[in-house]
């Protein structure tokens, strides 16, 4: 039986359309090679350029298409020159997280042997950072108080979201351990020593941890975590943290992987999920066809995994894994990589190399 997946596609701004088109082409190729699934892609408008011409950054119809889809692919949205009236950047991706309640921002950090990294150690790195994506310090966006003398923002941690977030983290650690990749460890990253909100966060983590006695649960302060991500990143398995801390640590993770061009992400809720690269719309290189498409392609690979494609066939690895391995092979070979990775390929050539590998 052929399963049909509806995918909403947000091409976004800047380099967005340039990295989305070849990614969709790769997914189409995959589904042509398989008889058990097929995709229906629906491209929908949203973003800064759309806001500049229409006054709407996330049209209701686009949101509805996203809600009616099995998964959402998003490249990057926002341009420094286009802002809302309060001066903040256009960020429909944040609206999507809130609208669809995508509380778990999943950011894998993987460094395989031979990959360019600023790290001195040769150790292989493979951990997952989970960033809460609907509350925390991002919660007050647009609703903070600003006067001439003081500015104040709110940090919100709720029991309901934290419980779901930690459950997701422990389940993921368990899955990784089953597949032989993880140590069955979840580390709660916080600042419980100075903020009551983080002591609350940590207490809920401990409650959830008690439900998973077979897994290791531990804690780390965010400042120490930043240090250890540089000094001993191979020691981590699953890290879970608040929104703002996760935002900062995921850029650090991208830096360790040799740059934003290889950093994928997924924002996952109970039933919906958005897959997008960690990087922004890179307006400085837009229109030149030189953007690195791999973070987008790796995000699409995470989508295949999340959709459970081929996961019920024990003799095969899933297509998500195959796609990730194809990208890793092209990066390791180093011939068809883009400028940011030290190569000279353009966006299309880099994707063609991945297709070739498949
Ligand atoms: P945002 O606020 O949306 O996170 P940002 O201000 O952090 O955006 P990016 O758009 O991520 O900025 O770009 C940061 C730098 O990284 C830029 O110099 C950009 O050209 C580069 N960059 C980002 N993505 C890519 C990519 N896919 N390929 C090559 N270079 C990239
Ligand atoms: Mg950024």
Automatic annotation (TrEMBL):
Its EC number is 1.1.1.85. Belongs to the isocitrate and isopropylmalate dehydrogenases family. LeuB type 1 subfamily. It catalyses: (2R,3S)-3-isopropylmalate + NAD(+) = 4-methyl-2-oxopentanoate + CO2 + NADH. Residues 6-354 form the Isopropylmalate dehydrogenase-like domain. It is an enzyme of class 1 (oxidoreductase). It holds the Pfam family Iso_dh. Its cofactor is Mn(2+); Mg(2+). Pathway: Amino-acid biosynthesis; L-leucine biosynthesis; L-leucine from 3-methyl-2-oxobutanoate: step 3/4. This is 3-isopropylmalate dehydrogenase. Keywords: Amino-acid biosynthesis, Branched-chain amino acid biosynthesis, Leucine biosynthesis, Magnesium, Metal-binding, NAD, Oxidoreductase. SUPFAM superfamilies: Isocitrate/Isopropylmalate dehydrogenase-like (SSF53659). PANTHER family: 3-ISOPROPYLMALATE DEHYDROGENASE. Homodimer.
């Amino acid at each position: 039986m052929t399963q049909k997946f509806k995918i909403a596609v947000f091409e976004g701004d800047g380099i967005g359309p340039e990295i989305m088109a070849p990614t969709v082409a790769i997914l189409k190729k995959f589904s042509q090679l398989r008889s058990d699934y097929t995709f229906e892609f629906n491209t929908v408008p949203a973003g800064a350029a759309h806001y500049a011409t229409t006054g709407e950054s996330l049209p209701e119809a686009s949101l509805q298409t996203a809600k009616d889809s099995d998964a959402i692919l998003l490249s990057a949205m926002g341009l420094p020159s286009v802002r809302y009236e309060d001066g903040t950047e256009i960020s429909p991706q944040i609206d999507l997280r809130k609208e669809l309640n995508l509380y778990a921002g999943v950011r894998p950090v993987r460094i395989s042997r031979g990959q360019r990294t600023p790290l001195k150690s040769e150790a292989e790195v493979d951990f997952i950072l989970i960033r809460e994506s609907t509350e925390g310090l991002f919660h007050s966006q647009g609703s903070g108080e600003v006067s001439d003398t003081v500015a104040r923002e709110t940090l919100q941690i709720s029991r309901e979201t934290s419980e779901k977030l930690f459950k997701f983290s422990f389940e993921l650690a368990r899955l990784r351990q089953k597949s032989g990749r993880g140590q069955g460890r979840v580390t709660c990253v916080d600042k419980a020593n100075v903020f009551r909100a983080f002591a609350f966060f940590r207490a809920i983590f401990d409650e959830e941890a008690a439900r998973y006695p077979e897994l290791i649960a531990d804690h780390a302060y965010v400042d120490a975590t930043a240090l250890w991500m540089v000094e001993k990143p191979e020691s981590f398995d699953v890290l879970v943290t608040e929104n703002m801390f996760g935002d900062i640590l995921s850029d650090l993770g991208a830096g360790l992987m040799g740059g934003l061009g290889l950093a994928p992400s997924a924002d996952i809720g109970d039933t919906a999920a958005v897959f997008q690269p960690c990087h922004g719309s890179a307006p400085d290189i837009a229109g030149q066809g030189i953007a690195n498409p791999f973070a987008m392609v790796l995000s699409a690979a995470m989508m295949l995994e999340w959709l459970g494609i081929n996961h019920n066939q024990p003799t095969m690895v899933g297509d998500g894994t195959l796609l990730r391995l194809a990208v890793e092979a092209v990066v390791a070979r180093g011939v068809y990589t883009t400028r940011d990775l030290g190569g000279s390929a353009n966006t299309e050539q880099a994707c063609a190399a991945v297709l070739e590998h498949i």
